[in-house]
Predict the 3D structure of the following.
Amino acid sequence: MERKTPLISAEDLQRQAEIAEYIHEFWQKQGKTPVAYVETYGCQQNEADSEQLRGLLQRCGYGFTDTAEGADLILVNTCAIREHAAQRVFGNVGALVHTKRRHPGQKIFVCGCMMGQPEISERMKNSYPHVDGIFSPHHLWQFPEHLYRVLIRHKKAWAVEDSAGAIAEGLPTVRTNKRKAWVSIMYGCNNFCTYCIVPYVRGRERSRLPEDILNECRALIAGGYRELTLLGQNVNSYGKDLGLGTDFADLLGQIAELDGDFVLRFMTSHPRDASHKLFDVMASHEKIAKQFHLPFQSGNDRILKEMNRHYNRAQYLELIAYGRSLMPDIVFTSDVIVGFPGETEAEFEDTVSLIEQVRFDALFTFIYSPRPGTPAAKMPDPTTKEEKNRRFDRLVAVQNAISEEKHRAYVGKTLRVLVDGRDGDFLTARTDGGRLVRFAGDDDLIGQFANVTITDSTTWSLVGTAAP
């Protein structure tokens, strides 16, 4: 079987590298190290994209700053999933006109998923004249070319052509965390959930070759990274376009067998493709975190069908039961949408009852947000905003009570955690199941595994003391 996913050629990537070197020399001749400010909205995949954009910026000779004021270049990486995030982008990009007025040489780029929507990219081009360039996720690998057009040729750069997508291997990466790394294993989505814009802006599913992923993971482990998180819009469909007979469970097991002391996570999974084999692999490898983020979105079969989710309540519950039969302490988290068009009170109660039955450790809860260009945006939606807010508050209250009870059960246990930072007087860490832990300790523990005895809990986190 031939590979369906196109790769960006080595020649095309080399051309971008040469352009980046030319830009680097341009700045060297001016005796200046320019600085860039990168602002990221949205999911972990957007964070991973921004790390590659920082890598390309560094190759072009840029350093980095944590403020837009005075930056030589501003890059805004956008998210199209929620209306609120989109409106924040419009407001914040609009406000950049003031920084550019104070620093006329400043260059402003807007990229990411919002720029994959034609009506939004047109609005950005026509209504935000201080923006110098925009590009969609498909054109990320060409960023040096976009920058050259703006910086050297003094022209606008627009790169928003629609595409099924390709894969560019070997892009430079500047990671923002020195111990925890995102590893993109695939891009795009084929599911076309009726509420979701992702397939339209990120293209079809396309998988990286297993050896490329394994090589990246080996290098990260050798570099001291202690946590690897595999990313994809739907990691469970990994490999379908490769024709190699390697599925996601196989890949996960291969990475878990690599030498080194690390924990392996993944997101996000789609229930239609989550298999018993995947749970079997998780249970059989100590390095794979016993945490599974499995979005269910609704507990009602009619709504799931309207969402085009391709599973029903019973099938979802069977997956949960199987996972717990192998790993009784597995942490399940999920996404849920309240107020999908046409959802009745009884259908909403089905969602609440599923939450009560599964008893998730945590939920990411959303009130339905219509996305122009998706089928759900055209569906009748008679439920008032006030009613949706009431349902949302009730659902959150139910889940918070469950989360609080589950967290209380940790008190008295000693857990192995990965220390990832500091919050005021306390170190912060994550359990194997991804639960946040705060405890007193020295900064030299950051980036290390430690044993912590849990002494207290809240709805959202655990509190502990360092154990021998």
In short: Residues 10-159 form a domain with the Rossmann fold fold (CATH 3.40.50.12160). Residues 385-408 form the longest helix (24 residues). The two ends are 54 Å apart (CA to CA).
